């Protein structure tokens, strides 16, 4: 049996009945995210002309990154004002934190492993007392204590269970409220509050929250414009956008070590059924029942059974895509949290918690828009074809 | 014990084969898309949208296998 690190909870707090542990990995992850945001915020500031010391290093790093990302040479110094370099403070700070953490974790790993008497071992023996002293005198010491004989499988299996937070009786039936449902309520509350505060007092020159809201709406419109006819976009951006934002925020909730609702298959299946129902209702509203029937029979009538099966397949594929991604990411993050809760969750979580969750929300919204646009477009194409046939007949007859 | 090891092998094979196919598919799709974009840069936006859709559907196959392997691990075990 291999030995692994335990999830060391520094603190725990109760959130509506869910016991949320705060681990070292989470703190590191939050710190990294804070650094990213800080770096983005700072990068908008004008910097002085002559970089020196550590800033110099940071600027070289970020200039390299920028050159990679824009595939252009960095602008040469000249009469133009210096453009702010994105992420220069970020790269410096992240490097420092990473170096510190790598140092700390390696000491932890090295000092607790049985090391053979090799040159490396001798080196380790020489350095160990210093690290031990560091460990005893810093606050992280007790947190970093090694734990052995853990059953990882059992722990992950326990963490994927949906727990009942509280329940109430309604007409003699017990209605359980699961933790994932509470998370969904939290996300809905966040969305309502954000919509309320971002949606009022619009000014001609956007600033702050208005800028965020406008960019979000513009992005969603651009997304919908790629798959929908232009006159549909304004009507369906609210639906597509809210479903996307809701799913994205639900998935991102795992950053705060809350259970992401999509790890419970009921969430994606329910959403997929609802969204396919809405797709059908919306397209009937758009092109009428006749148009919908036309789109089902386009290009030929033989397609009808396949188009009907296609709706069931769409439900399965939408729900499995969301469930598989989020559940897989959740299990993987739990595993990472168990084997190495110090450094890795912060780095890996940037993809599995943040990016993947947001992308899945986006994909869900995009597919909704695509399905609506597809049916409407097929209806229009079928109508044009019918008109052409009729016109041809009139000409001949 | 033998059954457990077999299930582990099955889960690993399921995701490995599906990931192989999906990676190949995504690679071919994006390669062709970049070819097209290099030939006709002005329709890059349209190609991008198509590529995005195609990648979503190709990736879905790998996700199905992921779900199957997770089910193998957590349900059969």
Summarize this, please?
Chain A is mainly alpha-helical. Chain A is 68% helix and 7% strand. The model of chain B has no long low-confidence stretch (mean pLDDT 87).
Key terms:
heterodimer; A: 397 residues; mainly alpha; two-stranded antiparallel ribbon; 4 strands; B: 77 residues; F1FO ATP Synthase; elongated
List the helices and strands and how they pair.
The complex is a heterodimer of chains A (397) and B (77).
Chain A: E1 9-15, E2 18-23, H1 24-42, H2 53-70, H3 88-112, H4 119-137, H5 152-159, E3 164-170, E4 173-178, H6 179-198, H7 209-225, H8 230-252, H9 266-296, H10 304-339, H11 344-396
Antiparallel strand pairs in A: 1-2, 3-4
Helix pairs in contact in A: 1-3, 1-11, 2-3, 3-4, 6-8, 7-8, 8-11, 9-10, 9-11, 10-11
Chain B: H1 2-39, H2 44-76
Helix pairs in contact in B: 1-2
Please characterize this protein's 3D structure.
The complex is a heterodimer of chains A (397) and B (77). Chain A is mainly alpha-helical and 397 residues long. Chain A contains eleven helices and four strands; from the N terminus they run ββαααααββαααααα. Chain A has helices at 24-42, 53-70, 88-112, 119-137, 152-159, 179-198, 209-225, 230-252, 266-296, 304-339, 344-396, and strands at residues 9-15, 18-23, 164-170, 173-178. In chain A, the strands form two sheets. In chain A, strands 1-2 form a two-stranded antiparallel ribbon. A two-stranded antiparallel ribbon of chain A has the order 3-4. The longest helix of chain A is centred in the C-terminal third of the chain and has 53 residues, at 344-396. Mean pLDDT of chain A is 75; it is low at 1-8, 71-75, 77-82, 110-118 and 145-149. Chain B has 77 residues and is mainly alpha-helical. Chain B is built from two helices and no strands. Classes of the chains: A mainly alpha (397), B mainly alpha (77). Chain A binds chain B through residues 153, 157, 160, 226-227, 317, 320-321, 323-325, 327-328, 331, 363, 366-367, 370, and chain B through 45-46, 48-49, 52-53, 56-57, 59-60, 63-64, 66-67, 70, 74, 77.
